[in-house]
Each structure stands twice: as C-alpha cells, then as structure tokens.
C-alpha cells in the first residue's frame, strides 16, 4: 500500500480505488474503506467532496454513526469547526438516551441510541456514515435526530439545508428513500454508481 502516491490529476472519487474488496465472505461489507482513511490526501479529498454540496449551509453539529461513521464524521466536524455527536449502538452510553431499532445491511436487527441532551429543537445536523447500502441504519439515525427536534433537511425550499453524507449511497429502495427526502452528498461519480450498486 503506497500512502505517499497522489495522482497528478485528482478527479472526484479518485480515492475510491484505495478501498479493498471483501475477502472474508457474506457476513462482511463488500468493500473496506479503511485503507482510504490511511492515505492523507485521499482522506482530505474524500471529506472535501462530501462537504462541497453543503458549503455555505448553516450546520450546527456533525453527527456520525457507530462505528465507521465516526471517522468521516469527526473529520468533517474538524474541517467545519463544529462539534461532533456520536450516534451509538445500544448499550455504550452511561447517560439518558433515546433508542431506535433498525435492520442493518446484513439484515441483522439492532438498536442505536443517542444522548438526549445533545440535540435541542431546531439544531441543524449533518449526518455522516461510511456507507448507505439498504438505508436502514441511516434512516434510524434520522428518526432519532428528528424525534429530539433536530433538523436533517428535507428537499424543500422552506427547510434549512443540512443533510446526509456518505462515501456511497446505493440506489437501493432505502437509498432512494433517503435521496428523495434529504439533501445528500456522496463520493461516487455517476458513471461508477451502477458498479457500486451491483457490488462490483
């Protein structure tokens, strides 16, 4: 792995080639982005591409989803000079929380939770995760934020434009549901989207 090489021409998504394919079978995600995070320029460009659609938007807080969403979410928060809120898998927070059940990309039933004192009514939140495959995890995070009065902007001229960011938002039923309702950002160029949707 060459962590020093940077292409002479850096088109949006060039860093996607740094990701490694799954070699462990169907219980794992089909790609591992962690090598992308090890590449200094790759990580910087990935975060810049995720944040580009939100430039000039009023964002109060960045929230990342347990666990890999913590990496991109914290990097985005640092870039924006905003606070970072961790949305956790259930059982890790020792304070008052609200919980939301969901099914992840593998079909496993899980529960996520967030502390009740971190989101006040009207707080404008950018939700970040590593990947949106079936949309179940992101949708549960959206429901938690909105139950506490936070704003993850819907596609409406009346709404404050914060939203959802992930390396890839697949064109699954759940991914489409999120794209149709929320301002979204991802890193996959349109010409590559079909390959990512088909996990190739």
TrEMBL record:
UniProt keyword list: Cytoplasm, Glycosyltransferase, Purine salvage, Transferase
Enzyme kind, highest EC tier: transferase
Compartment(s) of residence: Cytoplasm
Source organism of the structure: Daphoenositta chrysoptera
Family annotation (SUPFAM superfamilies): PRTase-like
Chain coiled-coil ranges: none
Main location: cytoplasm
Gene that produces this protein: Apt1
Protein name: adenine phosphoribosyltransferase
One of the GO biological process terms: purine ribonucleoside salvage
GO-annotated cellular components: cytoplasm
Subunit structure: Homodimer.
Origin superkingdom: Eukaryota
Record EC number: 2.4.2.7
Family: Belongs to the purine/pyrimidine phosphoribosyltransferase family.
Pathway assigned to this chain's UniProt record: Purine metabolism; AMP biosynthesis via salvage pathway; AMP from adenine: step 1/1
Reactions the enzyme catalyzes: AMP + diphosphate = 5-phospho-alpha-D-ribose 1-diphosphate + adenine
GO MF term (any one): adenine phosphoribosyltransferase activity
């Amino acid at each position: 792995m060459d962590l020093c090489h940077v292409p002479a021409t850096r088109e949006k998504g060039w860093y996607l080639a740094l990701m490694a394919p799954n070699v462990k079978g169907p219980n794992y995600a089909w790609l591992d982005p962690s090598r992308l995070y090890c590449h200094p320029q790759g990580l910087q460009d990935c975060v810049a591409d995720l944040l580009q659609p939100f430039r000039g938007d009023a964002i109060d807080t960045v929230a990342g989803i347990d666990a890999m969403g913590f990496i991109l979410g914290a990097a985005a928060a640092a870039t924006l000079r905003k606070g970072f809120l961790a949305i956790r898998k259930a059982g890790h927070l020792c304070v008052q929380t609200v919980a939301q059940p969901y099914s992840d990309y593998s079909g496993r039933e899980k529960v996520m939770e967030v502390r009740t004192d971190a989101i006040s009514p009207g707080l404008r939140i950018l939700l970040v995760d590593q990947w949106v495959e079936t949309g179940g995890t992101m949708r549960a995070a959206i429901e938690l934020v909105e139950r506490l009065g936070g704003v993850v902007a819907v596609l409406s001229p009346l709404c404050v434009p914060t939203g959802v960011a992930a390396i890839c938002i697949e064109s699954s039923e759940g991914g489409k549901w999120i794209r149709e309702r929320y301002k979204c950002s991802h890193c996959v160029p349109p010409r590559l989207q079909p390959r990512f949707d088909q996990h190739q």
